[in-house]
Automatic annotation (TrEMBL):
Name of this protein: Zinc-type alcohol dehydrogenase-like protein
Gene3D superfamilies membership: Medium-chain alcohol dehydrogenases, catalytic domain, NAD(P)-binding Rossmann-like Domain
Homology family: Belongs to the zinc-containing alcohol dehydrogenase family. Quinone oxidoreductase subfamily.
Cell location: Cytoplasm
């Protein structure tokens, strides 16, 4: 099978930082699906795993944690899918990724592809949808069916992949969404997705929040640069509120700032369930199916902004460079094998 991978961890200006490969096709066991990958998308996690370091892999490492495709074969313990099913999923960071023609993936973290979307459109969604859903409903514990309607959620970095789907999920729950953006096009994007207000995260946010009539917000979701925005997030969250981040910190985060407010800090890492094989792992299957239903009902829209074809090392190198610039709006997708 065709694949794109690496053996060395190189800078993105090295022509060999990702390579075209030919590998043996795998076979499913247990509750695994063998999926013929039709489209993939690229996320910051791809570039972080690929970041330069002094390590050489004994066998090629395949990246990629977003895909849509068709089930070719199923393992003997599979109960949720059958050959021919169209699926979308993010996968498991401890296993070979989706940058290959065929991929093995546990059925419990796979959803049925939205019927109304193409494979390319569907491939833009899984990782960001799982992350946003878990962040808003599992970690911040907002009620998906509107019990917390009217409460305020500040999303820092709202125009990126997770923010783009997060705005829409928060609006389903009836939350008042304040999204941050630093450019006109990104501000227009998040407004089109349903954000109630837009502020600039490169300008003092306290004054901007107060100008909207709020002293505090009920929760803050840091989807961009935890270190830069930590103090502001803690300042803006209400007493007994919650701050969440999906972006690892580079330096210490002063936890004492949370104490006076008895505020909570929570991490969201969407690979936790698959990495640790948690008993509730099947919830990712269920939430992906829920997101697919919302999309087919027209409640949630796709977030792909650019589609490149075919899937090969040259185009994946281009995609990685784009992601590493940190200015993406929506999602970047690759479709089809040459």
């Amino acid at each position: 099978m065709k694949a794109v991978g690496l053996k060395r961890y190189l800078l993105n200006d090295d022509p060999e930082f990702l390579l075209d490969l030919t590998l043996e096709s795998p076979s499913p066991k247990g509750c695994q699906l063998l999926v013929a990958v039709q489209a993939i998308s690229v996320n910051p996690v791809d570039t972080k795993v690929r970041a330069p370091k002094d390590k050489v892999e004994a066998s090629s490492k395949i990246l990629g944690w977003d895909a849509a495709g068709i089930v070719l074969e199923v393992g003997p313990d599979v109960t949720l899918f059958k050959p021919g099913d169209e699926v979308f999923y993010a996968g498991d960071i401890t296993r070979p990724g989706s940058n290959s023609e065929f991929q093995l993936v546990d059925e419990r973290i796979v959803g049925h592809k939205p019927k109304s979307l193409t494979f390319a459109e569907a491939a833009a969604l899984p990782l960001t949808a799982i992350t946003a859903y878990e962040a808003i409903f599992d970690r911040l514990q907002f009620d998906v069916w509107g019990k917390h309607k009217g409460q305020t959620l500040l999303i820092v970095g709202a125009a990126g992949g997770v923010g783009s789907i997060g705005i829409q999920l928060a609006k389903i729950a009836g939350l008042t969404v304040i999204g941050t953006a630093s450019r006109r096009e990104s501000a227009e994007w998040i407004t089109s997705l349903g954000a109630n207000h837009v502020i600039n995260h490169f300008e003092p946010m306290r004054q901007q929040i107060e100008s909207l009539g709020h002293k505090y917000v009920d929760a803050v979701a840091l989807f961009n640069d935890t270190d830069r925005h930590w103090n502001t997030a803690v300042d803006l969250v209400r007493p007994q509120g919650k701050v969440l981040s999906i972006v690892e910190n580079r330096g210490p985060l002063d936890q004492d700032l949370l104490k006076q407010k008895s505020a909570t800090f929570i991490w969201e890492f969407m690979f936790t369930r698959s990495m640790f094989q948690t008993p509730d792992m099947v919830q990712q299957h269920e939430l992906l199916n829920q997101v697919a239903n919302w999309i087919d009902q027209g409640i949630v829209r796709g977030t792909s902004r650019e589609v490149i074809s075919p899937i090969n090392a040259e185009n994946l190198r281009r995609a990685h460079r784009t992601i590493e610039q940190g200015r993406s709006i929506g999602k970047l997708v690759l479709e089809g094998w040459s």
